[in-house]
Design brief:
It is built from 8 helices and 10 strands. The protein is α/β, with parallel strands linked by helices. The strands form 3 sheets. Strands 3-2-1-4-5-6 form a 6-stranded parallel beta sheet, sandwiched between helices. Helix 5 packs across helix 7. The two termini are 30 Å apart.
């Protein structure tokens, strides 16, 4: 199978013309689930130039002002280019970051923001290797399964519409994170929190989030089994448990035909954080136990 690359379009593709020199525009590289959400977000205020050689045609619901370009070179004058390319799981569980590396090394944009989930230390390494201004900003774009509710200042962030997010995190040198935050502010406005940190912390917080949610799902599934064994209705137990305000309701639903964690993110990201822990010699046994249990549970359902 040929290696996937983001540097050239198949000949059958016919991108639109790049933005005019006088237009303020934002570049988006990769037009999958995350890339579409990022493009919709910025289309509220800017022209958005999308580069993805594997998207033949922009869908009918594409916002006005979003257009395809034929190469990464067309993003040279963008205010920022946001990298939203895949980081699939390798055989050893680690995240495959070669597409991110390829794109970052080729992009001519002055400021690059990585939205793809990458292992801690990746952004810092790429800054050192390329000398470019690179910021990491974890994505909080949920898969949209349930409604989103806000409780005071701490809103549940995983809304598929980034305009509904109550915070944005930027990791990197302060001059660069400040510039990225300023661009985001032009769309999201003054009521949103813009949190700035170093890139490694920003990368790790994304893995911390998904790892914690996987642990929570695992705990609830085992609690479900315990309730079943004791003749207790899990859903009744759950409602009573959630009366304690310290327990948040997300990821606590369990059904006989829907057990464990799946989807695009939790399995991949838990495997990746275990690979990181192995690499640095940290015993992350609680996470490994959850992953092993989930693998067994999902296989049991399939059988």
């Amino acid at each position: 199978m040929p290696r996937r690359t983001f540097l050239s379009y198949p000949k059958r593709h016919s991108p639109k013309a790049p933005p005019k020199k006088s237009e303020l525009f934002v570049g988006v590289v990769g037009y999958g689930y995350v890339g579409k959400a990022v493009a919709r977000f910025f289309a509220e205020r800017f022209v958005v130039a999308v580069y993805d050689p594997y998207v033949r045609k922009l869908p009918p619901d594409t916002p006005q002002g979003v257009r395809k370009v034929a190469s990464l070179k067309a993003l040279k004058e963008a205010l920022v280019s946001v990298v939203c390319v895949p980081t699939p799981q390798r055989e050893d569980g680690a995240a495959e970051v070669s597409i991110v590396e390829e794109v970052v090394r080729t992009l001519p944009t002055d400021l690059i923001v990585i939205k793809s989930t990458v292992p801690p230390g990746t952004t810092q390494r790429l800054r050192e290797e390329t000398g470019k201004r690179i910021v990491f900003s974890p994505e909080y774009i949920g898969e949209g399964k349930y409604p989103v509710f806000s409780e005071g200042e701490r809103a549940y962030p995983h809304h598929t519409d980034m305009r509904q997010h109550r915070f944005h995190i930027f990791g990197g040198p302060r001059e660069d994170t400040r510039r990225a935050a300023e661009i985001w502010q032009k769309v999201a406005g003054p009521q949103v929190r813009y949190l700035q940190t170093d890139s490694t912390t920003a990368e790790l917080v994304k893995y911390a989030e998904n790892s914690y949610l996987a642990l929570k799902v695992t705990f609830c599934n085992q609690l479900y089994d315990l309730a079943q064994a004791l003749g207790v209705d899990y859903h009744e137990l759950r409602e009573l448990w959630l009366e304690d305000g310290r327990v948040e309701p997300s990821h606590t639903l369990v059904y006989p035909d829907s057990r464990g964690f799946g989807g695009k993110c939790l399995p991949k990201d838990t495997a990746a954080i275990l690979a990181v822990a192995r690499k640095v010699g940290v015993d992350f046994s609680v996470m490994k136990a959850a992953v092993d249990y989930n693998r067994w549970l999902r296989k049991t359902l399939e059988d």
